[in-house]
Design goal:
DNA polymerase, domain 1, binds S-adenosylmethionine, 7-stranded mixed beta sheet, 7 strands, 2 domains
Amino acid sequence: MLAQPILMSSQSKRPSGRGARSADRPVSLSADPLRFASAYHAPVMAAEVVHRLVTEKGGLYVDGTLGGGGHSEALLQALSTEGRVIGIDQDSEAIAAAEARLADAVESGCFRTLQGNFADIERLLTNAGLGAADGILLDLGISSHQIDEASRGFAFSVDGPLDMRMNADAGETAADLIARLDVQSLTNILRAYGEEPRAWPIANAIKDARALTTTGELADVIRSAVPTKEEVKSLARVFQALRIAVNDEMDVLERALEAALAVLRPGGRLAVISYHSLEDRRAKHFLRFGNMEGKAEKDFYGNLITPWNLITRKPITATPEETQANPRSRSARLRISEKLAPPLSDHPR
Ligand SMILES: C[S@@+](CC[C@H](N)C(=O)[O-])C[C@H]1O[C@@H](n2cnc3c(N)ncnc32)[C@H](O)[C@@H]1O
């Protein structure tokens, strides 16, 4: 059953910093797009997410990509005192930042964090003793904090260790990955995840260089392999490709989409914000057809067989005001679907 749509008002305030919540202070679509921003991260399309994701004010919502807790705070503000938000992130820095920001909500039991990979959402919720979710948000990619923090090794603009792991406590770093791969495998990654047209010469230059250990060294090698006017684009594409490979982002996203469908109650909604075409294609196909390939399966009468009712026929994009205030929001695409009840024939007798 769908609850009342969230009230629109212009009364929203900047967050208190302690996660204060109020169901009578609704999230406004017309207010300052940066009102949930913090030094950690500025959440994208926060009002649009909340407006379309929340259908039960007393429900259970999962923010699968907690980051600095901006979307979680927006969700908490839209829920009643019975509502709960669970924030998942694999980055311990995100967990600590969001818990500090939403300390009041943690204390009152309305907000709880779970550190882990969102591909494991089913297991994480079960282990925490939680049941079916009313809504799940996946705001993909990395946070501004992860980019800005040189020690995390995500950015070509600042020098730091060549790391790029979202979970800094486990797994192979970008430096390890580059050292392990041969030229052909590295080329394939730069092509597949960065759509880099000069993948082969860049991969060769990387493998010819002595062992790379810093982002600055990698950036210099990339610059040496491309024309000057292409440098910035190639740097962005190669860093993106390596980040996706290090964190196995495409495989993890596919597993997470399937798992999200499993943990939603019928009538619950899944919202995905993607930032590049590889993510968006998967979200688009899955949220319409229930598969990653975009295959339209039809029944005997020609009706589409899908577990979803697509809420956003076209992706929602940030307003001009938001893209001006937060350039990162420019590439964001928000898609939302609602889980359908299983057909009657699937119900146990
Ligand atoms: C774009 S930021 C989200 C920002 C957040 N919506 C906010 O309001 O601050 C993405 C976050 O998701 C986390 N993340 C990305 N992939 C993940 C995964 N597979 N499992 C768990 N967390 C992940 C990153 O560590 C990062 O903190």
